[in-house]
UniProtKB/TrEMBL annotation:
Any GO MF annotation of the entry: proton-transporting ATP synthase activity, rotational mechanism
SUPFAM superfamilies per record: Epsilon subunit of mitochondrial F1F0-ATP synthase (SSF48690)
The name this protein goes by in its record: Mitochondrial ATP synthase epsilon chain domain-containing protein
UniProt xrefs under CDD domains: F1-ATPase_epsilon
GO cellular component, one term: proton-transporting ATP synthase complex
InterPro entries: ATP_synth_F1_esu_mt, ATP_synth_F1_esu_sf_mt
Pfam families, alphabetized: ATP-synt_Eps
Gene Ontology biological process terms from the UniProt entry: proton motive force-driven mitochondrial ATP synthesis
Taxonomic superkingdom: Eukaryota
């Protein structure tokens, strides 16, 4: 039997992000604000091809775009 997150087509990291966001939203106002600040990402990445760096993109925006594309399928 596979895990529910795997059967739903999610990666384990994405599953953890959704679970963390759900827990943060269930907290009281003060604790929620503090935890949301800790949960924000400011990571960037670039794909390299043939020794040349591609466009630098935000990881959060790329993740959101990938989720939206997956939801369309």
């Amino acid at each position: 039997m596979t895990a529910a997150w795997k059967a739903a087509g999610l990666t384990y990291n994405r599953y953890l992000a959704i679970a963390a966001r759900t827990v943060r939203r269930s907290l009281k106002e003060e604790a929620r604000l503090a935890s949301e600040r800790r949960g924000q990402m400011d990571l960037r990445f670039a794909k390299w091809e043939n020794g040349k760096q591609g466009e630098v993109r935000s990881l959060a925006q790329a993740n959101d775009a990938a989720l939206a594309q997956a939801a369309e399928k």
